[in-house]
Design brief:
The structure is a homodimer.
Chain A: H1 4-12, E1 28-30, E2 36-46, H2 57-74, E3 78-88, H3 93-109, E4 113-121, E5 125-135, E6 150-154, H4 159-167, H5 177-186, H6 192-198, E7 202-207, H7 212-223, E8 226-230, H8 239-246, E9 253-257, H9 262-272, E10 276-283, E11 290-293
Parallel strand pairs in A: 3-4, 8-11
Antiparallel strand pairs in A: 2-5, 3-5, 6-9, 6-10, 7-9, 8-10
Helix pairs in contact in A: 2-3, 2-6, 4-5
Chain lengths: 311, 311
């Protein structure tokens, strides 16, 4: 394997368009925009746990960055700068070349500069740190939800989990659903434009990485609220609903907003060509408690274990 | 092993003193000081490559952060915020508790807030991202050296390499040198106060992580300069000189400064109780070329292979 310096030069050194100093010194330098705060996220992906050595490296390059972009999007921030640290076994150059192509495809799609990093030898491990910017005080936190607000979900969570279940032989998808679900799994589209547009509309937000019920639970706990979901606003009973409620890895956004913003959010949905579905509302009650009501307003037992398949 | 959330809560969640939002949301938020740039460094340490699973975890916690602090110090910046991503095999709680103690000892010593991170299961891997602040335009780059400037080195590089050589049975140290060298290896002291004081005095700086000759070579290459070193300013011939010139892992600083700053730098050395040694000067010549002159000004062949022991 060529030296660290050679690898960085070959695959990761590109002119930084929006940084003062990119790859190549002791550290990188960036100049935050006046009046902005920095929003920072880091994720470590480990071979055998988060991906497999024979997974497509280009897809993995995309996804490794996209999962961090999603965290920044969920804060309502604009992604700006990324650092990549990667450990690789010897003789991984072909893999690295494909990985870099996928990574830069995602970086270009979201206007991100790769400003620094570290390469080393070891069991395959990818650690990305991403910085975004948001005007001071305008970040969307998990803890900002208020009582009797609407709970919204973007897109169709569950597709990535269905794609994975298909690959693992647990379900059998047919076209066109198969292609849609595999794309959701391999090339997740973080909701940056939505997150930016939600500033001033949403009171709290989180991205769906662990599953809708789990992540909504995190948001409600942080906001010290309970919530009810309406069964008739969810997909019909069956595998799609199970995946919708419990499947992770989609990187859609869950957010809360006051009812007065419904028309604005419908307009936003049309402008972004992205479904925004109102699935319930926040209520008083034990922090994080979720109740699902049927069309007649009666609580429905939706057994957690029904979702283990996708959790 | 407890869940990721439990581990983060137990070992890594402390009130962030200087961050808007610390551990626990989709991302952390910090507010950069007005008029400052951000200086950002990331390092990945892998078990088997950079440390061994039976290394003292508390020392490792210190060192994992300290090597990043050194990068920030070498830029003349004030370290501020850190993110930690760590992969661990199952059942590593005792290790993690010691690791966190060492990490926070270093964080406290240098006024750093741990604002976020990620824990996951996998082969032991530690990835730290650190960012510091520096007034706009005042960072010390590798590329800033000018012709006929002095080359300075802080402290006594080589001690960490001698300590390692002793542990590996390649040399035999006696007290008090043994304790000093083992401390340099296990608890390196990044030169933050020096880096800050060098703003406006030094023209370029780099930290000694690969060895003095190698890192000085990086600085000279980035500045498109050659240099001569004076043999009589170096330790006497022998193992100490070899370690001084080629031993890595000390995290001392190499920097260049105009001769008019000699008195100020001597005063700084006294104020910090830290030796600053003028070992040579920059010259015109092939970028990165280093010549070593004896007391009579004649070039000396200092065979690279003499240092392989420490490189």
């Amino acid at each position: 394997m060529p030296s660290e310096f050679a690898l960085i030069d070959r695959y990761f050194r590109r002119p930084a368009r929006h940084a003062v100093l990119g790859v190549g010194d002791d550290a990188a330098i960036v100049r935050p925009s006046p009046g902005c705060e920095l929003v920072i996220s880091t994720d470590m992906l480990v071979a055998g746990t988060h991906f497999f050595p024979d997974d497509d490296a280009e897809d993995l390059g995309w996804k490794a960055l996209a999962v961090n972009v999603s965290d920044i999007a969920a804060m309502g921030a604009q992604p700006r700068w990324a650092l990549l640290a990667v450990a690789l076994p010897a003789a991984s150059e072909a893999w690295l070349e494909k990985f870099a192509r996928g990574l830069f495809a995602c970086a270009d799609a979201f206007g991100i500069d790769l400003i620094g990093g570290d390469t080393t030898r070891g069991p395959r491990n990818i650690c990305i740190t991403l910085f975004g910017e948001v005007p001071i005080g305008q970040a969307l936190l998990r803890s900002g939800a208020h009582l009797y607000e609407d709970i919204w979900v973007s897109g169709m969570p569950g597709r990535a989990a269905l794609g994975l279940a298909h690959l693992e032989g647990r379900v059998r998808l047919t076209e066109p659903a198969l292609s849609v679900c595999l794309a959701a799994l391999r090339r997740p589209q973080p909701r940056v434009a939505l997150g930016l547009a939600l500033r001033g509309l949403a009171s709290a937000a989180i991205d769906v990485s662990d599953g809708l019920l789990a992540d909504l639970g995190h948001l409600l706990s942080a906001s010290s609220l309970a919530a009810t979901l309406k069964l008739d606003l969810l997909p019909p009973a069956g595998i799609e609903r199970d995946a919708y409620l419990a499947g992770g890895d989609d990187y859609e956004l869950i957010f809360t907003a006051a009812p007065e913003h419904r028309a604005a959010l419908q307009g936003l949905s049309e402008r972004l060509a992205l479904p925004l579905t109102r699935i319930g509302q926040t209520e008083a009650g034990p922090a994080g408690q979720l109740t699902i009501l049927d069309a007649d307003g009666r609580p429905v037992e939706v057994a957690r274990r029904g979702f283990d398949h996708f959790a």
